[in-house]
Structure formats: structure tokens, C-alpha cells
Design brief:
heterodimer, A: about 190 residues, mainly alpha, B: about 100 residues, flat
Chain lengths: ~190, ~100
């Protein structure tokens, strides 16, 4: 199951490290915070959401009130409230803390892969979800922290814009991942209809 | 800043935990409509994510649509997710550079 999770996580590796890098660079360059790598590390560990890590930066820089930031997150990320419905049955008997971690990691990409995994054995499926969550979590943390650290520490030597221009377009991997999963779902529905 | 991090954590985790708070404590099998809703909601969400992801790429140009067609075509033909994703992404990265 670990090898399967690792293989399935490779497209996410491309997407999360580059998107995370962009988020980290933004936070350090435009976030108007001191110790940007630390905040990048904490927010990427605890939020695990690209949308707010990127879209939220101007508001963090403008010192938006905490309440307004919470409200904005609620509006932008409301889709997360629906993801759990697909996992309710499968995660019914998972121990509390492990379930909390899996819930924390219900990102767009994790959700899509966990739903697409047709493993029948509940134990094996749970192992798959756990490995996948840990792998993708680490990609995201490394991406954001590295981006913030690059700007903060090496900003004088390495031009972050150059790195961003090389990797420009790699974010398509996320869209491609969703397209592939949707294609397989559609094929599944068509063959069942026959 | 620590307040912002705490708020982001609370809202994101709270949203993701919502279905489990409502139905997690229930003993016995889940109601039929919840299971049906869970099965119905996943292709709808994936379709929404696809539309939403186009906003993150150069959707005003032809590049992402060509790369998307290549990705879907390869997936229908070869059924190898990694191959479809890597070739599609490389095609997109090449397309936006010309």
C-alpha cells in the first residue's frame, strides 16, 4: 500500500512543492511578516490549504482582523464541508486521533485520490489514506517553508523569480490529476450502465 | 500572525470535520440518503475542482485546453494516470513557452 500511495502521490509532489513554493515566496516577499519561514512552516502544517495560503497573503500583509480572516476562509473553503460525506462509512471505526489527522488532510487532492482508490479491504484502504496524507502533507510543508526560506535567507543570491519562471506551468499537474480521476469515474459509470 | 494561523487552522479543520461531527457518533449503519449523497457528491466535486483549477492556469489561452485534451485522451487510451499527468503537464509547460 505504501508503494501505491507513493506512486499516486507523485503528481501531487509536482503540484504541491511548486504551489507551496509560490505560497512561501509570496508570504516572505509580500506578507509583511518577520520570521516568514517560521510562519510558512506553521501555516502549511496546520492549514494545508493552497487557496488561503496564496489568496490570503495580501490580507495578512494588510493586517486584516482575525475574525475577518476566519470569515474569508469559511467562504473560500466551504467546499471542504462536503468531502467528509464520501469518507463517513469507510472511516467509521478509525481511532480518534488518526481520524483527526485524516480529516485535517482532506485536501482537494487527497480527497480525490482517496475516493478514487477502489481498495475493498478497509484496513488496506486506511493504510493507503494514511500514507498518502503523510506524503502529501510533507510535500506541502517542504514547498511552503522552502519558498519562504529562499526569499528570507538567500534572497540576495538566488532570484526567486528565476526559480518560479523555470517551474512555471507545473501547477497544471493538479488539473491533470482531477481530469484523470474524472475520466476513470466516467468510465466506471459508463461500464456499469451497460 | 499567530491569531491568523490559529483562525486558519480552526476554520479549515472545522469545515473538514463537519460531516463527521453530525454523523460520526451515530451507532449502526449510516442512513441510506447519507451514503447515496456521499457517492453522488464525489464526481460532482471532482467536476467542480476541474473547472476551479482552470482559474489557476492560463485559461484565456488555448494551452490548457490542448493539454487537457492530451491528458484525457492518453488516460482513455493507456489508462496510466502517471503517464497522462506527466505528458499533459509537460505539454502545458511547453505550450505556454511558445
Amino acid at each position: 500500500m505504501f508503494r501505491r500511495a507513493l506512486r499516486d502521490s507523485l503528481p501531487v509532489l509536482m503540484g504541491y512543492t511548486t504551489m507551496g513554493f509560490v505560497a512561501g515566496v509570496l508570504l516572505a516577499a509580500k506578507g509583511n511578516v518577520i520570521l516568514a519561514p517560521l510562519w510558512g512552516f506553521l501555516s502549511s502544517t496546520l492549514w494545508v490549504t493552497g487557496t488561503m495560503s496564496i489568496a490570503g497573503v495580501p490580507h495578512i500583509a494588510a493586517r486584516i482582523p482575525v475574525f475577518a480572516f476566519a470569515l474569508m476562509t469559511l467562504a473560500v473553503n466551504f467546499r471542504y464541508a462536503f468531502y467528509g460525506f464520501s469518507m463517513l462509512g469507510r472511516w467509521k471505526d478509525v481511532p480518534f486521533l488518526r481520524k483527526c489527522y485524516l480529516i485535517l488532510m482532506l485536501t482537494d487532492e487527497n480527497y480525490a485520490l482517496e475516493v478514487a482508490c477502489r481498495e475493498k479491504d478497509p484496513k488496506a484502504h486506511l493504510r493507503y489514506c494514511t500514507f498518502l496524507s503523510i506524503l502529501n502533507h510533507s510535500y506541502w510543508i517542504v514547498g511552503v517553508t522552502a519558498g519562504a526560506a529562499t526569499v528570507a535567507v538567500l534572497g540576495m543570491m538566488v532570484d526567486p523569480d528565476a526559480i518560479r519562471s523555470w517551474t512555471n506551468g507545473m501547477e497544471f499537474a493538479m488539473l491533470a490529476l482531477f481530469l484523470v480521476i474524472f475520466t476513470d469515474q466516467a468510465r466506471g459509470m459508463l461500464s456499469r450502465g451497460k | 500572525m499567530s491569531g491568523i494561523v490559529a483562525a486558519g487552522f480552526a476554520v479549515n479543520f472545522g469545515l473538514r470535520a463537519l460531516p463527521f461531527l453530525f454523523f460520526g457518533a451515530r451507532k449502526g449503519p449510516l442512513p441510506k440518503w447519507v451514503e447515496r449523497f456521499g457517492a453522488f457528491v464525489s464526481p460532482v466535486i471532482i467536476a467542480c475542482l476541474i473547472v476551479y483549477s482552470f482559474a489557476g492556469v492560463e485559461w484565456r489561452t488555448a494551452s490548457p485546453y490542448i493539454a487537457a485534451a492530451i491528458t484525457v485522451g492518453l488516460q482513455v487510451w493507456r489508462r496510466n494516470p502517471l503517464l497522462s499527468i506527466v505528458v499533459g503537464t509537460v505539454a502545458y509547460m511547453a505550450a505556454i513557452r511558445f
